[in-house]
Amino acid sequence: MSSKPSKAPPKLPGTPYGGHVRARLWITGGQGGYLGVGKVQLLEAIAEKGSISQAAKAIGMSYKRAWQLVEELNGLGDSPMVVTETGGAHGGGTRLTPRGEHAIKLYREFEAEFAAFVRKFPHPMDL
């Protein structure tokens, strides 16, 4: 008697919120563009590592893609979220501006509120 290997459930897109809801959350800008979890994770990694290349490596993103996202983030408003400093005695580096720090805070608060909202409801199949 041969047994078939069980099929793994398909990987669903989005982040799990609660036990039965997956979603992708974006905050859109007034001038176009958006802030989503990937960009927020990059900002958090830049804040921690002080380097775009080290941040990209830490989250499994290519350096080229990280730079593209930094350029998109910096283009979302009148002031940048990320600034780079070249050379100097310490070799330069990258840091978030107060606007970049605020973007992380705003997104994480939005995400927490959404997760709290989802937890208020029973499983959709139990309705």
Structure description:
Helix content is 43%, strand content 16%. Helix 1 packs across helix 2, helix 1 packs across helix 4 (98-119) and helix 2 packs across helix 3 (63-74). The protein starts with 14 loop residues before the first strand and ends in an 8-residue tail after the last helix. The protein has 127 residues and is an alpha+beta fold. The mean pLDDT is 86. The longest helix has 22 residues, at 98-119. Strand 5 (82-85) and strand 6 form a beta hairpin. Strands 1-2 form a two-stranded antiparallel ribbon.
Question: Could you give a quick summary of the protein structure above?
Answer:
With 127 residues, this protein is α+β, with helices and mostly antiparallel strands. It contains four helices and six strands, in the order ββββαααββα.
Topology:
Blueprint: E1 15-17, E2 21-23, E3 26-28, E4 34-36, H1 37-49, H2 52-58, H3 63-74, E5 82-85, E6 93-96, H4 98-119
Antiparallel strand pairs: 1-2, 3-4, 5-6
Helix pairs in contact: 1-2, 1-4, 2-3
The neighbouring-strand order within the major sheet is 1-2
Number of helices: 4
Mean pLDDT score: 86
Largest sheet: 2 strands, antiparallel
Unreliable stretches (pLDDT < 50, length at least 5) are none
Shape call: globular
Total strand segments: 6
Distance between the termini: 41 Å
Q: What integer value in Å does the Rg equal?
A: 19 Å
Secondary-structure element string? EEEEHHHEEH
- Specify the structural class: alpha+beta
Measured by DSSP, the beta-strand proportion falls in 15-25%
Which bin fits the share of residues in helices? 40-55%
